[in-house]
Amino acid sequence: MEHGRFPGRRFLAGAAALRGRSGRVRSARLSATAPRLRWLNEASSSIGTTLDLRRTAQEFADFSVPRLADACAVDLLESVLRGEEGERWTGPGVPDFWAVATSAVDRLGGLEPDAVEGKPHSGTTLVLRTVLTGKAGLVGRIRPEDYGLITSTASNAEHMRRAGVHSYMVVPLLARGVLLGVADFIRARGRPGFTSTDLALALQLASQAAVFVDNARLYGREREHVVELQRALLPRSVPRTVRLAVSSSYTPAAAAGGIGGDWFDVMPLPGGRTALVVGDVMAHGLPAAATMGRLRSVARTLLLLDISPELMLARLDLAARDLEEDQVATCLCVIHDPADRSYTIARAGHPPPLMVSADGEAAYVDVPTGAPVGTGVIPYDAVRVPAGPGSRLVLFTDGLVKTRSTDFSAELERLLDVAAVMEPGALEATSLTEASAPPGLPRFDEAAVVVAESLADDGWDVVQWELPRSATAAAAARRLAREQLSHWHLKDLADVTELVVSELVGNALRYGGGPGHLRMVRRDRLVVEVTDGGPDLPQIQHTDLSDEGGRGLQLINTLCRRWGTCRIPGGKTVWAEQDIPGLTQREPIPPVLNEPGLMRGI
Q1: What is the CATH number of the domain that holds 318?
Q2: Which DSSP symbol is given to 241?
Q3: Key word Hydrolase present in the record (predicted)?
């Protein structure tokens, strides 16, 4: 009767019971799924902690073991390791993989991966199937004949049998629809085989890891591009210099964000002088590398004019202010003169150079600090310091000593200690860069280093005389040049050299208020230079047949390989260079003549 009066009561009771059972089922499923979701969530903080490609792959493998598998191996396409885009392989042939990461539980520790680190491999049958189709592969229970599908060597198949490997999965690493590589997983005795649920979990994990791997690939490619541009803009080799042994080193930062902007240069100048430059654009990346290239080109052009370091920095400041990038840079410029064995040094906001004497004492050279170039705060001041034989001058950018954890001044002091304890023969740019690296820490800023050692005798011959400011200067200069060429066994060049010297000294007497010094440099070529106090630089002039003068520089231009002129403090220098015909080896050179009051042998 009751049921007849309320026919829906029985139905409602059944529905309530059904809902209760469904709720319990959903709750049970959620309880089983929740740990997996939490585990996948942890992957975002455990994988991709750095932007290093191989370390990211290793973190992926380590995270998978032992929660998902007893062992995991990550193989990436060779093109991905080069920073290039991956692809869906369509042939012909087979792709090249590199084994970049493996992880395994202790009982599988002796199981070697298919590929040997450092060599490419073509992948197993199931791996190639995954590459061609883009789909994951699952072997829930491995039969004896299946071992040939999951490994490419018979020895590894035997190892798997002995280890009790009974289940296998391979999943593609896809990011933005592009194949980067594959990850394979195995389980051994003591655990159940892989299921479709495990495969779905592996696919989700691989999807997350692939994004991190692709980010690391892109970051590494950017770093390589910046490093490639940076190195292309730096000198490829160090030229030969007079009485100076120069070594150089450029070390990029570990991260792409610390690359771009540091440069160095070594330039032979007329008269046997050498210009040494290091600079640092106060920025990083491709824009900084481009700015560095522009500033280095300007600096080289200015130094080829043989101007003093402080004037070069002042004009470099003007050029930097004209750049659209609105960037500033620090710079250190040094000019070595072999005649009096000295360095002329000026700096624009740059760390001072380090001088290590022949007996190992190290100290920073006291050079006035100017403002960085591009700020518009000029002028700059230069100092002149002796360069005794055996001493070493170290020029460097701040990346050599800068760290994230210690004070910059403390690192400068540490560099002093490092340079002082190094053996004289071992103190060169590369070894100093390695010795000064922070122990156990990656270099977070790039570093450029130049080390110049002053030599007692390097095979170059340099002599210099002070000439009288009288009409006898030309005759004295011709006689000195002729006698010196005789000592150098270069009598064949005497006629041309005497003519060149006579013209240069004559111009100094007529237009420069009298000559200063006469310098001769001999090695692969013969260089003659004369200084005077005149402000005007000589130029080749057009002459008529009736003109009595104006042909001196035309003769020099015709007879010599090249000639040039540049301003110096208090006047100018005019120089001319000749080839030495038939020079195949160096003959022993007798002592230099020494005429009191007139000639000074260097």
Answers
A1: 3.60.40.10
A2: B
A3: yes
Domain-located, residue 232 = no
Distance of CA 90 to the CA centre of its chain: 38
Task: Domain of residue 33: give its range.
Answer: 1-39
Diameter over CA atoms, the chain: 149
Residue 376 in this model has a pLDDT that exceeds 90: no
Quote the pLDDT of residue 225. 75
Same domain, 218 and 72: yes
Classify the phi-psi angles of 3: left when phi > 0, otherwise alpha if psi is within -120 to 50, otherwise beta: alpha
Q: How does strand 244-251 pair with strand 392-396?
A: unpaired
Q: Count each helix (H run) and each strand (E run) in the chain, helices first.
A: 15, 22
Question: Residue 229 domain-assigned?
Answer: no
Q: Where are the beta strands (DSSP E) in 325-377?
A: 329-337, 342-348, 354-356, 362-364, 369-370
In total, how many domains does the chain have?
4
Q: Does the structure show a pLDDT above 60 at 7?
A: no
**Which residues make Cβ contacts (< 8 Å) with residue 407, sequence separation at least 6?**
none
pLDDT at 87: 55
pLDDT by residue (tens digit) across 498-539?
A: 999 999 998 888 888 889 899 999 878 899 999 988 887 777
Tokens encoding 132: 């061609």
Query: Looking at this protein, which amino acid is placed at residue 443?
Result: R
C-alpha to C-alpha distance for 187 and 210, rounded to whole angstroms: 22
Domain match, 183 and 294 both: no
Claim to verify: residue 267 and residue 119 sit in the same structural domain: no
Please give the sequence-ordered ranges of beta strands (E in DSSP) within 188-307, or none if there are none.
244-251, 262-268, 274-281
Averaged pLDDT for residues 7-29: 52
Q: Which two tokens stand for residue 549?
A: 């003068």
Assigned token pair, 387: 């360069």
Record the tokens describing residue 166, joined without a space: 């009974």
Q: Alpha-carbon distance 259 to 252, whole Å?
A: 6
Across the range 234-258, mean pLDDT stands at 81
314 close to 378: Cβ distance less than 8 angstroms: yes
Same domain (yes/no): 424, 548: no
Long-range CB pairs of 425-428 (<8 Å, 24+ gap) are: 427/356, 427/392, 427/451, 427/453, 428/247
Please give the single-letter amino acid code of residue 100. V
Residues 105 and 252 in one domain: no
Query: Do residues 28 and 56 both lie within one domain?
Result: no
Q: Tell me, yes or no, whether 528 and 547 share the same domain.
A: yes
Give a yes or no: residue 230 inside a domain: no
DSSP codes, 5-18: H-THHHHHHHHHHH
The verdict on residue 597 lying in a domain is yes
The reply to whether 55 and 101 lie within a common domain is: yes
Q: Which residue shows structure tokens 């110096």?
A: 568
| DSSP-derived secondary structure letter, 446 | -
State residue 1's pLDDT score.
45
pLDDT at 316: 92
**Averaged over 479-493, what is the pLDDT?**
91
* Domain end point (choices 425, 454, 483): 454
Measure Cα distances from 76 to 7, 127, 574 in Å. Answer: 67, 11, 63
Distance CA 129, CA 120 (A): 18
- Amino acid letter for position 364: Y
Q: Residue 324 — pLDDT band, cuts 50, 70, 90?
A: low
Q: What does pTM read for this prediction?
A: 0.69
What is the mean predicted confidence (pLDDT) over 383-409?
Answer: 87
